[in-house]
Amino acid sequence: MDFETRWMEDFLALASTQSFSRAAERRHVTQPAFSRRIKSLENAVGVTLVDRSTTPVALTPEGQLFLVTARSIVGQLHESIARLRGLQPHEQQVIEVAAAHSLAFTFFPDWLSTLGDLTHNLSIRLVAMNVEDAIVALREGQCDLMQVYYDSYATLQLDPAIFPSIQLSETLMLPVCKPNADGEPIYCLDAQNEDPLPYLAYTSGAFLGRTVRLLLKHDPVRLRLKTVYETAMAEGLKGMALQGRGIAWMPRLCIERELEEKRLVICGSAQWQTPLEIRLYRCALIKKPAIETLWHQLNPVHST
């Protein structure tokens, strides 16, 4: 029987959310792909697990029975992986960190230097990736720590009992653009005219893009923003903003030098800014000695 363990995690997400769309979002795949994976699981076990005729979706009697099995298997698998990773002597002094691109290139090096003796005799292996991939890496035991922006709207879908976190710092999401010869922004969100504003946007799946969309959700200015460029990378938007191509929302920590040198300027009042909290996550099931030591010496008061 062809079978993939990720299908069981998909099934658990569906049982929890009772919605194909929300479960697909939690599993970081498109809804059609998610639906195909659930169907593949049903084909593999040979029974219908989900009653698709109800709203919200419900499990069939066979699905309810399989739910118990899936929870047990997935739980045992995660626990086994965690123990194996923690018991490998040659890996104990290596800490693998997955970090959001914008943090890996800016915040992470400075943060690491502040740890001093905490990282003595440790080897740090950093991998920059988008937030969704970092979450998958943490869940599947492919990294020890994850450094990302905290999502106050809970789209990270991480159980704090299994994936505790520590607040490391805070920054602001700022609207910026290139200044003119007088040092004033060439575009302004507070302008009273109705002229369209060129908008340098994050792609739909980008984490920072969701932050901007939530900020603008109920504001009429969003109707004036004309998307002229899209990318998932904050650094890509910064490059376009420096060329004067439009307005971009950027984490302040990514543009400190550009703001100081006045190559970029803030192009709107405080209402267009939103706070960002930087957090460090781990999987509590992994008992790697180096991680245990580092984690408990980092400010435990802010652990959640």
Any overview of this molecule?
With 304 residues, the protein is an alpha/beta fold. The protein folds into 3 domains: 5-84, Winged helix-like DNA-binding domain superfamily/Winged helix DNA-binding domain (Arc Repressor Mutant, subunit A), CATH 1.10.10.10; 86-170 and 277-302, 3-Layer(aba) Sandwich (D-Maltodextrin-Binding Protein, domain 2); 171-275, Periplasmic binding protein-like II (D-Maltodextrin-Binding Protein, domain 2), CATH 3.40.190. The chain is built from 10 helices and 11 strands. Strands 3, 4, 5, 6, 7, 8, 9, 10 and 11 form a 9-stranded mixed sheet that branches. A two-stranded antiparallel ribbon has the order 1-2. Helix 1 (5-17) crosses helix 4. The protein is flat.
Number of domains: 3
Q: Specify the number of helices.
A: 10
CATH superfamily of the largest domain: Periplasmic binding protein-like II
Helix content: 25-40%
- CATH overall fold name of the largest domain: D-Maltodextrin-Binding Protein, domain 2
Distance between the termini: 41 Å
User: SSE order, as H and E?
Assistant: HHHEEHEHEHEEEHEHEHEEH
Largest sheet: 9 strands, mixed
Q: Report the CATH C-level class of the largest domain.
A: Alpha Beta
**So, CATH architecture of the largest domain?**
3-Layer(aba) Sandwich
The structural class is: alpha/beta
In terms of quaternary structure, the protein is: single chain
> What is Rg?
22 Å
